[in-house]
Write a structure and sequence with these properties.
The chain has 300 residues and is α/β, with parallel strands linked by helices. It has ten helices and twelve strands. Helix 1 packs across helix 2 and helix 1 crosses helix 3. It holds the Pfam family HTH_1.
Length: 300
Amino acid sequence: MTTYLPTLKQLQYLVALREAGHFGRAAESCFVTQSTLSAGIRELETLIGVTLVERTRRVVRFTPLGERIVAKARTVLREADELGDIARAAGRPLTGEMRMSVIPTIAPFILPRVLPKLRAQYPELTLYLREEPSGPACDSLQHGRADCVLLALPYACGDVEIAPLFDDRLFVAFPGSDSDATSGPIVAEDIDPARMLLLEDGHCLKDHALAACNHPELRGQAAMLGTSLHTIVQMVDNGLGVTMLPEMALDAGILDHTGIVARPIASDRASRSIALVWRKASPRERDFRLLADVLADSDA
């Protein structure tokens, strides 16, 4: 009896459609025409004898079985990628392609310092970067869209290996004209939660900031939410409130050309741990640890 198995290309098309929710966008992500992608998925459905996708003019809806097969397809594609990783791991270190997700409160402050050093030390490495909040970044890691993630801990990122890089202190930032401005550390309990300007949900720095000022219960009660640290800095500079900024952002000059004053926080929780994480049992662990060494040096 001949057994016909799905091809990796068919599984790739199916996963791309699930993630894009649209045949055209899925085809673009796979660098094929829409008709090619649609035909590949129909061949897959014919092969296994079930309908995976309900097609209408406006909606692409996966059947319950289709959802289960998508989950399994992600695992198969991720492990197929790791076949190539095994071969690369046996050769020269940090060569070939690597996909790294970086959270937005780290990417603009570390990458300009570390990328030139990485190119100089490992010229055969092609590093594809993707900036996304902690949740989507960890999801990308678990589903194989990313090989590793540069993020801030504590954060639950699933079953991962962790290479701690360095601690990043948090500072209170307030308008220079603020009458409460002092020259020394700010006591956490003196921070008025009603004036706090924080990042919107999805950014782990928000939770780290609330923990640092001993107000984790105020997660959904910030005076105003910003989409980026640069946006929040402009709010503070215009007297709309106070915020917390990581030391790496201060070192990178985020307060240049503003009247904002930053002070350290007198709290043992006023920091976050910067780390590189990757899936457990990855055959590229040696590469990730070498990459972690380069990233850790960026703090020097």
